[in-house]
Batch of 2 targets.
Target 1
Amino acid sequence: MTGGPLEDPDASEGPLSELRAQIDDVDTELLDLLQRRLDLVSQVGEVKGRHGLPIYAPAREQTMIAAKRTLAEQHGISPDFIEDILRRCMRESYTQEKNMGFTRQAPDLGPVVVVGGAGRMGALFARMLVLSGYDVHVVERDTDPDDAETLVSEAGLVVISVPIKDTVGVVRALPPLREDALLVDLTSTKTEVMAAMLAAHPGPVLGLHPMFGPDVDSLAKQVVAAVPGRDPQASRWLVEQIRLWGARVHEVSARDHDAAMSLIQAQRHFSTFAYGLHLAHEDHDLTELLALSSPIYRLELIMVGRLFAQDAELYYDIITASPDSLVLLQRYHERFDEALTLLRSGDRAGFVTRFAQIGDWFGPYAERFLTESRGLLAHADTTR
Amino acid sequence: MTGGPLEDPDASEGPLSELRAQIDDVDTELLDLLQRRLDLVSQVGEVKGRHGLPIYAPAREQTMIAAKRTLAEQHGISPDFIEDILRRCMRESYTQEKNMGFTRQAPDLGPVVVVGGAGRMGALFARMLVLSGYDVHVVERDTDPDDAETLVSEAGLVVISVPIKDTVGVVRALPPLREDALLVDLTSTKTEVMAAMLAAHPGPVLGLHPMFGPDVDSLAKQVVAAVPGRDPQASRWLVEQIRLWGARVHEVSARDHDAAMSLIQAQRHFSTFAYGLHLAHEDHDLTELLALSSPIYRLELIMVGRLFAQDAELYYDIITASPDSLVLLQRYHERFDEALTLLRSGDRAGFVTRFAQIGDWFGPYAERFLTESRGLLAHADTTR
C-alpha cells in the first residue's frame, strides 16, 4: 500500500493513457473476431436451414459451452465469464437467424390464413410462416366478408389470433373449412376455445399459446404451449416448424394449461398490478428510490414498472380470462392476510417456520434461483 | 427455400463440422484476447490503486462504450451486442479488482475495530479495510470483554455490524471511545440507531447502509446509503474509501432513508413472502410451471424463489425493523383489496384507468424499465 489521499492523480495519466490505448487495440481486434464468429454461425444457420435442422440445439450448445469452460480453466480465466460471453454471442446469432429462411415442413399445405394477422402476435406468426416458404394471407375486421370466406374455406391452415375475449365468437363465425385443414389458435387460455374449435371444425385442431410477447428478439428458448385437439398426426408438421424457429414446444392438456396459466400469468400480473397501485399511491420520489436501489432492488422495481408500459386491455384480459383465476386470487388474498397477521403479531418463530416450509416447497430450485439471479444481476446496469 | 421434411439431415454433417471447427478456432483466439484485455485492465487497476483513483469511473466507462458502439456500427455489428460484451468484460475486471489493494484514505487513523466482524457483512467490510491498508481488529461475542474494551477504546474507527435487533443494545454497551474516533454502523434502518450512536459517542458519527448482500462479486455499482450523524468532515475519508472500492455513496437523512427502505425492502420482501406462501399452498408441480415459463415468467419465479434460499431471520428483521413498515403494509393490503374488487366486479374501464394512472406515476421509467428488462431477459437462461 503506497501513498495517501493527497497524492497527485495527474501523475497517473502517462501510464494510464498508454494502457488505455492498448485496451483500445484489443477491443478493435475483439470486434473483428466477434464479427468473424457471427459470420461463421450464420453460415451454420444456412446449412441447417437447407437441411431442415432446428436453429436452436440445446444439447450441442451444452457440450460446446462445457468444452470452452474447460479451456477457460486451463487458461486461468473464469469459466462463468467465458460462458457468459459465448452465450451472448449465441443470442446475437439467434437474433440474426430469426430473419433467415426456414425449411418448409409441409410442402403441400396450400395457403395459410391468419385471422387477426394485423395484430402483433398474428403478424409475428405470419412473418415466420412467410420466412418458412408458406403462402400466407391475412384476414382482418376490414377484409371484405366474401374475400375472407373464400380465403378461409380454401386454406390448409387457419390460425386464429384475435383478442382473448373475441376468440370464441370468431371461431363460431368461421365458414366451413376444408375437411383436411388444420385449425389453430394462439389464445392464452385454452379450455373454452378448444371446445369452440372442435365444435366448429370436424378436421384437425391444435391449440397453441406462445408464452412470449410479439416483440421478442428471437424465438430461440421461448416456450409455446401446445394443447392437442384432434388428429395430432395432422399438426405434427406445425410443431416441427415451430421447433425449427427455435422455440420449445411443451404439450399440455387444456385444463392443466389453464390451471398453470392462472398461476404463471393471472396471479403474477395481478400481483404486479396491486404492487404498482400501491407504489403510485404512496407517491415516494421514484428517482430517490432508484438512487437508493442496488442492482437487485432496481431489478425488482423494473419488473413492476415494465408492466405499465404495456397494454392495459391485454393484461385485464389475461387476468380475468379464466373464472378459476379470480378464485385463485381470492385464495392469494387469504394468504396475504395470513402473512400480514403473522408479522403484525410479532410471531418471529411462525414466520421462520413458514419461510422454511416455502423453501422446502421450492426445494433445490431456491438455491438455483439465487445463483441464477446473481448471474442476471451482473447484467443489471444502473447507468444506461 | 429448398427441401422438405424428408430431406436427409446427415447430408449436412460435412459442411457443418468444418464450420464448427472454424468456430472453435475463433473461440480459442477469443479466449486469448479476453485474457489480454483482463491483464491490461488489471494493470490499469494497479496504476489507479497507486494513485488513489477509484476503480469504478462511470463517466469514462460511458465515453468508452459510446466510442465502441460507433465502431461497431461502422463494422455493421449491433452496438448493443458489443456493449454487452464489453460490460461483461468490465464486470470481470471489477471482480478481479475487488481483491487488489486500495489506497488508504486515512493514513493516520490508527486501529479499526469491527464489532460483529465475524458476521458476513462485517467480514466483508473488515476485508475491504484490510485491503486498503488499515490495521483491522474484530470483536465478537466470544472476545474476552477486557480485550474488547481495550480494542474499542483505542480505535480510530469503530464499525458496528450486528443483527438489526441487537444494534442499539450493542451501541449502548460500548465503552467510551477515543474523542476523535469515528463511530459507524451498517444497519438497514437508521432512525433509532443514529440516535443511539449520537448519545453513546460525543465525537464523529456516520450511519451506513450497504444496499447489497455480503456475497456480491464486486462493490462496483453497488449502493451504500450514508446518513450524516456528527462532524461530516471527520468521516469524509471513509466515504471516499468506499467510493474507491467502487460503490456509489448516496447521502440521505435517517427519516428519508427509513421511509424509502420501507418501500424498497420491507414492502418488497413482504410481497415476495406472501407470494411464495401462496405458491407453496397451491402446490402446483413446480417443474411443470417452469416447463411452461418463457424467460420472462421464469425470471418472475426466480425473483420469488431466491428469497427462500436465504436467511429467514434476516428477512423477518428487515420487514419488521421499522414500525412504519407495518403501517405501510396495512395500506398495501388495502390497495390489494381495491385491485381485487376492481377485477371481481368486472370493471374493465376502471382497471384500464388505474393502469394508466400507475403508468403516469412511473413516467418515462415504465418504458425504460421495459427496455432494460428485455436486455436482461436475454441473459435469463433456461438451460443451466
Target 2
Amino acid sequence: MTHEKMLDAYPKDLGGLDMAKLAACIAACFECGQTCTACADACLSEDMVADLTACIRTDLDCADICIATGNALSRRTGYDAKVTRAFREACAAVCKACGDQCAEHAEMHEHCKICAEACRRCEEACRALLATL
Amino acid sequence: MTHEKMLDAYPKDLGGLDMAKLAACIAACFECGQTCTACADACLSEDMVADLTACIRTDLDCADICIATGNALSRRTGYDAKVTRAFREACAAVCKACGDQCAEHAEMHEHCKICAEACRRCEEACRALLATL
Amino acid sequence: MTHEKMLDAYPKDLGGLDMAKLAACIAACFECGQTCTACADACLSEDMVADLTACIRTDLDCADICIATGNALSRRTGYDAKVTRAFREACAAVCKACGDQCAEHAEMHEHCKICAEACRRCEEACRALLATL
Amino acid sequence: MTHEKMLDAYPKDLGGLDMAKLAACIAACFECGQTCTACADACLSEDMVADLTACIRTDLDCADICIATGNALSRRTGYDAKVTRAFREACAAVCKACGDQCAEHAEMHEHCKICAEACRRCEEACRALLATL
C-alpha cells in the first residue's frame, strides 16, 4: 500500500515508533473519513432522512476529524507527543460517538452498518497507537 | 459577521448555549486555520527554512485541527457534548503547541508573531467554551 | 484583518499580484466555507429536511472547495498560474451552483438567503482574481 | 474495499454511472491526498529542503484538492454534472502539476517518485471519469 511505502521512504530514522501500528492507523483514518462522508450522503437519500439527522451530523464531524488525524499522523517531522496524542484522543472519541450512532441504525441501513465497523476499526487503531506513546 | 448571522438563523432553539462565546470560537478557529496555512508557507520561503521545519509541521497540524473544529462548532444538529469537548480539547492542545513554536521565532519573523497571537486567541476561545460545558 | 497582515508579512516580494483582490478572495473563501457548513446543518434541522437534500449536498461540496481554495490562495511559495487558475475556476463553478440552490430557498429560509449571498461574493471574488491572471 | 461497499449500499438507483470508474477515482483521490501530505513532510526533513519548497507547496495544494474531490465524489445525492466536472477538472490539473514537480526529483527522492506515481494515477482516474460525463 502506498502509505506504507511512504513511511519507508521517509528520509530520517526516527526510531522507537511502531510502524505497523502507525501504518494501520493512517489507513483506518482515511478509510473512516471517506466512509463517514459516504454514510452522511446515503442517509440524506433515505426516505426517513428526518430520523437520521443526528447520524448525518456525527458522520460529518467524524469525517472531519478522521482526515485531520490521518494528515497529522502522515507527518513525522518535528514530532511532538502532545500534539499526536491530542489528535488520536479526539479521533477515538468522535469515532466512538459515530460508531454508536451508526450502530443504532445498522439493522436497517447497510451503509450505517459498514460505517459503524469503519468507526470501530479507526477508534481501535487510535487507541492502539495511544497505548504505544 | 456572517457566522453570527448564521447562528441566529438556525431554525431550532437549542437553549443554554453561550452564543457569544460560540461565535467567538468559530471565528477564532477559521482565523487561526488560515493564519497557520499562511505561516507554514511564509516559513517555506525564508532563507533559513531548514531551521523552521518543526514550525512548518506544527502549523500544518494546527491548520487541520482548527478547520475541523470550526466546522464541528458550526454544526448544532444532534449536539453531543462528548464530541464537541473532544474537538475543543484537541484544538486547544494543538494551538498551544503551535503558539509555543511560533512564539520562539516571533522576534525574527513577523508571520510567526502574528500566527502565535492567532493560536493564543484560538486556544483561549476553545478553553472559554470548554468552561461553559 | 489577520489574513491581510499575513500577506504583508510574506518574506519575498512576488510583484505583479493584486494584493487587495487576493486578500478579498481569501476572506470570501473562508467565509463561504463556514457559511455552507452552517447552512447544511441548519437545513438538516428544518422540518422539511427531505426537500432540502440537494441543497445540503451542494453546501457540503461548496464548503470543501472553498476551504481548499482558501488554503491554496494563502500559499505564495512556488506560485504556478495553472494551479491557482484550477482552484479558482472550480471554486467559482461550485459557488455558482450552491448560490443558485440556496437562492431557491432564500424566501423561506434565512440561512439559505445568507448562504446564497456568501456564495455570490465568493464566486465574484474568484472571478475577479481570475481576470487578473 | 469499504468505498466500493458504500457505493453498493447507496439506497437510490441513480443509473447511468460507471461504478467501477467512480470507485477507482474515489480511491485514487484519497490515496493521492495522503501521499502528497506525506511527501510534503518527507521533503521537509530532507537536508536540501531549501531546494524543495516549490514541491512542498504543490504537494499541499494537491493534498487539499484530492481530499475535497474524494469527498465530493463520495456524495451522490442531488447530483449536478457541472459541480462534479469542476472538481474533477481542478483535481486533474493540480495532480498534473504536482506529478510534474515530483517527477523532477524522482531520481533523487523515493518519496517524490511514489508521489509522482500517485498523482499520475489520480489525474488519469479523474480524466477517465470526465470522459464518461
